Amino acid sequence: MADLVLRGGYLDGETVDLLIQGGQIAAIGPQLEAAGATEIDARGLLLSPPFIESHIHLDTTLTAGEPKWNESGTLFEGIETWAARKKSLSREDVMRRATTLLRWQAAQGVLHVRSHVDTTDPELTAVRALLEVREKMRDLVEVQLVAFPQEGILSFPKGAELLEEALRLGVDVVGGIPHYELTRDMGAQSVAISFQLAEKYSRPVDIHCDETDDPQSRFLEVVAAEAIRTGMGEMVTASHTTAMGSYDDAYAFKLMGFLRRARINFVANPLINITLQGRMDTYPKRRGLTRVKELWQNGLNVSLGYDDVMDPWYSLGTGNMLQPAHMAVHVAQMTGRAEVVACYDMVTTHAARTLGIADRYGLAVGRPADLVLLEAKDKWNAIRRLAPIRMVIRGGRVVAETTASRTTLLGEPIDLSAER
Ligand code: FE2
Description:
Blueprint: E1 2-11, E2 14-21, E3 24-29, E4 36-41, E5 46-48, E6 51-57, H1 75-86, H2 91-107, E7 110-118, H3 125-136, E8 142-148, H4 159-169, E9 173-174, H5 184-201, E10 205-209, H6 219-230, E11 236-240, H7 249-262, E12 265-268, H8 270-276, H9 292-297, E13 301-304, H10 322-331, H11 337-345, H12 349-354, E14 371-374, H13 379-384, E15 389-394, E16 397-401, E17 408-409, E18 412-413
Parallel strand pairs: 1-4, 6-7, 7-8, 8-9, 10-11, 11-12, 12-13
Antiparallel strand pairs: 1-2, 2-3, 5-14, 14-15, 15-16, 17-18
Helix pairs in contact: 2-3, 5-6, 6-7, 10-11
Bound molecules: fe (ii) ion.
Fe (ii) ion is lined by residues 55, 57, 116, 208, 239, 307.
């Protein structure tokens, strides 16, 4: 007898049962005979692998308005505001806020999270706190930490040493921010340092790269060149790359060929970049997003992140990954049938590749029994309706449940699904 059986859920256009045994998926198929110690009625619900947050800042989350609101809405006022808030960081403060967001995420089916953590702090307070949170939350959410030098590797006193110290303490991934270094040369040099540290400590790389509307910001080519030189390819991620949305086509087309050779991953953060970028423009006003659709069409791995939830860069947010997927459909104009589905994959399977966990992720026999049940018949409708997430299962155990939503109009129940 199986530990748990889900009956009659939707998966890839079929209606299936899913058996869980020993924390793993034991069988998937229509009308399976085996009984389960617990049986769950999944009729009308989509079975999905868990959502993956591939780019968030858990150290800055839930600080919006402290010590002041970001009134200009720019990246730079965000960095200034954070520099002020950072002075009052404590272990308890960071742990409390990060844990709160991780619990929100888990309740909404996000079971893997890659979080950047600021290393430009002589005490590395947030680094130490998030390392503790990573261990404390391990049974519910798997967290990867990226050592992120918010104020620069070469432009902040002892920036390189602090970055390395974070890796020694156990941070999983090496970060960078070349476009915020004081000069172009320092930016290129900072990328080289990130890769040297990655090789020295055998860690992946995830760089905040060209998060600006400046079409001259060309550190992505430096990242690609380092990925090719080191052969690190799929262990390398370029986050944001918003300048690519402002590059002229002649350069962008040439670069695309190099990117295909480099085989690096991309993370776009559509909620944040549609609000942060384009702030220096009057009209026409740029969208400030990287070339999500074109990267995807060129066979490159693109995932989507939230980036910020209620912090100096973005005062809104919930952590629900359907929201960046929904925004990507609009901002990247990915409205074709396959394109909408691709945006769902960008917060699930594509993000698994970005995090390097694709070999132990997904709804297949033998994989961990981690899954999400949504009120939708397929991925397209899940995005269209920002579908309610009804149940979250982690390692074969139900960890979150949401009661079915029901709306009435003039006293009569009304069905708002109209799925097609
Ligand atoms: Fe970021």
